[in-house]
Amino acid sequence: MPLFDFRCQQCHATFELLIRSSDNPTCPACASQTLEKLVSKPAPPGKTAGVLRSARTQAAREGHFSHYAPAERPKGK
């Protein structure tokens, strides 16, 4: 079920709801069904390349390579 942002046309409350496309949502403040669907901001990605790089650098220092793909593991000397 998608999460949508709405603005009530009667009381001007702004809220988000998790609804099915077949549902008729109502305003939680005044129970009106005259709602305007708003454009939602996309969620930021969970981890950036910088965060992954620093975590993998720390794991390499500590000798933990179990979460690496075989191609990413350092070659032995």
What features would you highlight for this structure?
77 residues, alpha+beta, three-stranded antiparallel sheet, 1 helix, 19% strand
Question: How would you summarize the topology of this molecule?
Answer:
Layout: E1 3-8, E2 14-18, E3 35-38, H1 49-62
Antiparallel strand pairs: 1-2, 1-3
Question: If you had to describe this structure to a student in words, what would you say it looks like?
Answer:
The chain has 77 residues and is an alpha+beta fold. The protein has one helix spanning 49-62, and strands at residues 3-8, 14-18, 35-38.
Short description:
The protein has 77 residues and is of the alpha+beta class. It has one helix and three strands, in the order βββα. The longest helix is centred in the last third of the chain and has 14 residues.
Main sheet makeup = 3 strands, antiparallel
User: Number of helix segments?
Assistant: 1
Task: Provide the β-strand percentage band.
Answer: 15-25%
- Using DSSP, what is the number of strands? 3
Give the low-confidence spans: none
Average pLDDT number: 81
Radius of gyration: 23 Å
Order of helices and strands: EEEH
Distance between the termini: 51 Å
The quaternary state of the protein chains shown equals single chain
Which structural class matches the secondary elements?
A: alpha+beta
Name the shape in a single word: rod-shaped
Strands of the widest sheet, in order across it, are 2-1-3
Q: Helix coverage percent of residues?
A: 10-25%
